[in-house]
Amino acid sequence: MAAQVLDAAIAWQLELDAGAAPAAVRAAFSAWLEADPEHRRAWRQLCALDGGLRPLQAPPLRAALLRAPRNRRRRTAAAVLAGVLLTGAGLATLELQMPLAARLADHGTATGERRQFALPDGSRLYLNTRSAVDLAFDAERRALHLTAGEILVETAHTAAETRPFVVLTADGALRALGTRFVVRKLEHGTLLTVVHSAVAARPARRTDEQRIGDGERALVHADGVDPAAPAPADADAWRDGMLVVEDAPLAEVVAELGRHRPGHVGVDAAVANLRVTGTFSLDDTELALQALADGLGLRLLRRGPWWLTLAPAA
């Protein structure tokens, strides 16, 4: 859903929660709710989330959301949730299992979860762990808004379908050119990997597009696109529950496995640059981490149920 719609829904919720709302306020809220189906959808999703938070003193969370700058509300929500981990075991479990962005999205995944969907045009959408996507299909284009995580798209092709297919992130627009591609939202940009055919990438602050071809990947920023480089052959292996790496640093491999399990997984600096080649199951990260430790002569150090570190054996 659009950020401004979510903003409005949060504002209405805070105003209505503040106390007995005057009749004029209730009437204005009803008019807003009936003005657009997106308003009603945003309200339903927010109320569903709020229902889970109320037993854990949700008003401070909602107040923090309202005070946040408009373009940072969702990020602030995640930060507030993380901040209250120390005060509510229920909220901690909530965030570990599924981030706020995924709970508010049209399609979302929890930690360690992967899902697939058939889109209205017949295309296929695959979501990796902790991902969030909003759909915006209209008469002009077929658009997906990726707000968190990673997706694989297989676009459908029919003679009757002329609308462009676009994946949107804060960094820009990625227009499919009859293709299969992976998009991952990172803190410092959007990583595009083209598995088949090509994608036209347009940074958010520019009007020109750059073509990323079959077997290439590139990082898209709001101000430009980094030079394309060869993509790993198994960049979409996560769809089948596998992580395939070749001569990768141990720290990088462990970080990728860590995305698929709750809590912290780290690597001691002394062994972070050990090289790894292999195939690991994303559905059993415990087994994968143990295999890494055994294969590299390391040990797994545990500090409670949510903290694990790979360290030298001695």
Strand content: 25-35%
Mean pLDDT comes to 83
Our count of helices gives 9
Low-pLDDT parts are 52-94
- Annotated CATH architecture of the largest domain: Sandwich
- The level 1 CATH classification of the largest domain is Mainly Beta
- What's the story with the biggest beta sheet? 8 strands, antiparallel
Helix % is 25-40%
Q: Cα-atom Rg, whole angstroms?
A: 21 Å
Shape assignment = globular
| Total strands | 20
Number of domains: 3
Element-level helix/strand string: HHHHHHHEEEEEEEEEEEEEEEEHEEHEE
Q: Strand pairing plus helix content: what structural class?
A: alpha+beta
Distance between the termini: 51 Å
Q: What would the CATH topology of the largest domain be?
A: Jelly Rolls
GO molecular function, one term: sigma factor antagonist activity
Organism: Thauera chlorobenzoica
Transmembrane segments: 76-94
Keywords: Membrane, Transmembrane, Transmembrane helix
